[in-house]
Request: fold
Amino acid sequence: MLRKPATRNMASHALRRMQEDNIVTRMGVGEYGIEDETFVEWIRERPALLSEG
Reply:
């Protein structure tokens, strides 16, 4: 995926883009929720993607 560690700035920009595309909603300071439950299920079914490094 990334060839170098992600910076705080990179994460902030990614979260902002996902908010603009209505993928995530900001619930509070540092707390986000995924808007589409089907998307949540799709992510949970792919543990190999989460463990790649």
